[in-house]
């Protein structure tokens, strides 16, 4: 298998982190979702929900972090799996109905992933917590925004079936 930058996308609580962790256990290079890190850093500065308080600052921090992840992935010698990508930032901003600078769009055009796997909403595994505040209904809407955004930027999305993590892992390996 040639080196690739592979992205896992999907709405909140669709199983991305569990799958990324499994891929890592199988020996793959994986980069985690960075929004929790951004949220926790903001909390340390006294901002409970940065995304809700200042969505533009939150999104700019995510965009910068995801560009950094992409650039780091380019330096790796093997395939890298990443939990969420640069176009996710645009999809979420569209979801909340906020505007964003042209640099967001330019980043989506400049940094291209080799393959995108989509994890659909899955109510049976859905949970919320202090960093994941969206309802299941909102998670389904976010899913639609993600599909629209990634399609707009020319990606063919490969939907992962709602099966065990081991079977999801095997599905990805079979479709690389």
UniProtKB/TrEMBL annotation:
<dbReference type="InterPro" id="IPR027417">
    <property type="entry name" value="P-loop_NTPase"/>
</dbReference>
<feature type="domain" description="NadR/Ttd14 AAA">
    <location>
        <begin position="6"/>
        <end position="168"/>
    </location>
</feature>
<dbReference type="InterPro" id="IPR038727">
    <property type="entry name" value="NadR/Ttd14_AAA_dom"/>
</dbReference>
<protein>
    <recommendedName>
        <fullName>NadR/Ttd14 AAA domain-containing protein</fullName>
    </recommendedName>
</protein>
<dbReference type="Pfam" id="PF13521">
    <property type="entry name" value="AAA_28"/>
</dbReference>
